[in-house]
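Lecture notes, unit on protein representations.

Consider one protein chain, 214 amino acids long.
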Amino acid sequence: MSKSGKNFDYAAALEKSFARWDFIRENGCSDPFWADGVNMNLVRNHIIFYKQKLSEETTLFLLPEAFYRETPPLVDNDYMARADEIRQNAARSMQKIDEDENLKFVREQSANLTEKQQKQLCIPAILGYAENLRRAISEDDLLTMRRYENPQSYLDSFHSAAQKLRSPENLKKMETVSADDDEEFCEDECVESEQFDTEQTPEIREDFVQLTLF
């Protein structure tokens, strides 16, 4: 049932939104593009909306306890929970990436690749992973650093690329592949683009247009 339906449980939704706001404040969320503050403010809009609907559709004496809870304040859109933890995890990930033998091998071999081979193996993207994290650490970019808290997917991409580079047959095959089929070679390596390009809106998007009116 949509929120416009008469049977929608606004009281339960309000409780859930308060719990969600509290959770993001303490633990953050996994949104790759939007800071926790953006998502907290969007949840706040949900809370305002649910309270308004309850006041319009519910008898005063039947309003839930959550209705009387103070609406959370607006927070800085750039707010990030677990800031120190994210920094520590990013530093550990940076060390693992810098010490990775597969990445070192890819760097060494990249100069010997043709432009076509580099494109097929997503070499620029792979080499950029380490520099993206290094730059994020230097600029204290917590949102980017959070993407690297678990570096295993990046380490896996280094391993996959290195394995392909160690195969002369595979490199030879690349030169015979048409431009339209280039992407088949970089499916495993382009971790960041595959993980993050599909969703570039705040993590909590429900009722976004309607709620931003409040």
